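Example S7 (structure tokens).
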């Protein structure tokens, strides 16, 4: 499982530690990665991202997942 996500955004790359992610929100073929300070958009489906993150997140809705911690 990854310890952090690298999210490219307009020439920059956001480094988001998985431990800081509060919840994930689906937006078509993208995922909004919500932390306490920011919410970058990642080009990935929610289902694919959850498969990579494993049991650290629980899908609570068709379009959302929350961190277990």
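Recovered sequence:
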């Amino acid at each position: 499982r990854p310890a952090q996500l690298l999210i490219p955004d307009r020439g920059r790359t956001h480094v988001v530690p998985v431990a800081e992610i509060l919840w994930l929100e689906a937006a078509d073929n993208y995922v909004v990665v919500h932390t306490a300070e920011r919410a970058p958009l990642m080009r990935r489906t929610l289902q694919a991202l959850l498969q990579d993150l494993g049991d650290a997140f629980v899908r609570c809705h068709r379009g959302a997942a929350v961190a277990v911690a």
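Notes on this example. The CA atoms of residues 9 and 36 lie 18 Å apart.
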